[in-house]
Amino acid sequence: MENRDRPVRTARARFAFYVHLAVYVVVNALLVLVNLATTPGTLWFKWPLLGWGLGILFHFLLVQVLPGGAKVRRGMIERELRKGGS
Questions:
Q1: What is the mean pLDDT of residues 62-71?
Q2: What kind and span of H or E run contains 18?
Q3: DSSP labels, 50-78
Q4: Would the pTM of this model clear 0.90, i.e. be above it?
Q5: CB half-sphere exposure, 26, CA atoms < 13 A
Q6: Residues with Cβ < 8 Å from 44, sequence gap 6 or more?
Q7: Coil, strand, or helix at residue 1?
Q8: What radius of gyration, in Å, describes the C-alpha atoms of the chain?
Q9: What span, in angstroms and rounded, lies between the C-alpha atoms of 19 and 38?
């Protein structure tokens, strides 16, 4: 069963990353538009773009680059289950 579970978990993790990336692009495009329409002299959109961009980078590294990322996540889930989920 492990042979089937691993590719399914990997596919789910990658899909979650792509959803995260799509939301990042859409929301930050809207922030740029709002910024330029309301206060074009002060470009504040760069701060949420940068902060969230770091989150996207770490998500990418966890899902696509680090081979142990799934193990870390699984360990976190198991610890929470041992605590009783609260």
A1: 74
A2: helix 2-38
A3: HHHHHHHHHHHIIIII-TTHHHHHHHHHH
A4: no
A5: 6
A6: 35
A7: coil
A8: 18
A9: 28
Residues with Cβ within 8 Å of 60's Cβ and at least 6 positions away in sequence, in order, are: 17
- Domain extent listing, the chain: 2-83
The count of residues in the chain is: 86
In eight-state DSSP terms, residue 42 is S
**Phi-psi sector, 84: left (phi>0), alpha (psi -120 to 50), beta:** left
Q: Which amino acid is at 59?
A: H
Cα dihedral across residues 45, 49, 52, 54: positive or negative: negative
User: What are 38-64's pLDDT values in tens digits?
Assistant: 999 999 999 999 999 999 999 998 888
Give the integer Cα–Cα distance in Å for 80 and 25.
32
